[in-house]
Amino acid sequence: MKKIFSLFYKNLFLTNRLFTLIGCCVVLFLLAFFFTWLGVIPELLFYTLMALVIIDIFMLYRTHRGVFAKRHAPDRLSNSDDNELGIFIENWYPFNISAGIIDEIPFQFQRRDILFKTFLKPRQRKLINYMLRPTKRGEYEFGDIRVYVQSPLGLIRRRYNIKQAETLAVYPSFLQMRKYELMAISNNLSEIGIKKIRRLGHSMEFEQVKNYVQGDDYRTINWKATARQGNLMTNTYTDEKSQHVYCIIDKSRAMKMPFEGLSLLDYAINASLVLSNVALLKEDKAGLITAGEKIGSVIAADRRPTQINKILEVLYKEKTRYLETNMEMLYATIRSVIKQRSLVVFFTNYESLSALQRQLPFLKRIAKYHLLLVVFFENTELKKISEKPADDVEGIYIKIIAEKFAYDKKLIVKELAKYNIQSILSAPQNLTVNTINRYLEIKAKQKI
After folding, report:
1. Which residue range or ranges hold the DUF58 domain (predicted)?
2. Do residue 156 and residue 181 come from a single domain?
3. Which one of 72, 97, 190, 238 has the largest count of C-beta atoms within 10 Å of its C-beta?
């Protein structure tokens, strides 16, 4: 009995309407001292109000469960993307209700606005959708759903604590991966900035012999087939397949820098996932290596259907380290794991020319055996400072320093080009598009 009473008053809340009416009663009682003609009107109104409160309590508490609510969430969340979640609610009361719904989302989001107000008729159902954008990979713990119910009288609220605690994993941006995948299949990649690269010559990967149509390269005419058929026949070629594409992700402290809530490591992980998926769609083999002061995960290049899931599971667990990358160990791993000439995409970050010089000897060795593409990040905050006009002497000093750092980034690109090492200097938000563009360009120019 004590437990029931405890649950009763813990879940009972008074509304503003009730406080307003009580205030009106107090005012009438005060006025009755000065205006005797009011008589018993204040008492009558007060007792009427108390009776309505008792009726309201009876209406809301006469059933054990008056509403049903459930969270609709995906099996996993996509990092840096807007993920759609929903709350399904059904009214089991025989009268109209007003409901306030609070979903206890994980503390990582630091949001206090997940409160929804809705109106439900008897037996009516509703699905309320909302968006969450995680910025870190890992496990996110959701709590219960709190539903505050009001009857048409609106004097009190009853709270329902619906147990919906669950843990959802936040994976690298698989939603972004699917978007690029669908656009690649439908040849609509240009809509999101993916360029069509003009093919120079043709590959030697033979596809079929077909009838000649105007515009075909006359150098591909198959004269033997033409003689047999009596019509002009041409050979057609396709992109070379089964080429190896390895994404190497630097997990050192240089990748810890934040940008719009995400670390540079997260941007590199998202770009690697999309690039690996596009490579598999192009029938190439995708692989992965992560490295910090020691080698992390190694996935040999393959194009099996399960390869992208294997890469996704590995990337989900990766975290930045606090030491510099051991380039000697990384070079030894590349030599032992990658047995044939491959496209090696190295995601890292250099803030100064001296940082590059420490790693350059090992980059030159890798470039001897593979086509090396170094991807690093533009410091967008410094770029904004360098483009902003200075107002005083201190502003001039800050602007000059910012321009010096921005110039160092351009020198790094030139320094890498001297040793035939390709590079991409990209703002974090454009990293994925720029990386895919360069991969398609390399494929079109048959450089692997």
Report:
1. 208-351
2. no
3. 97
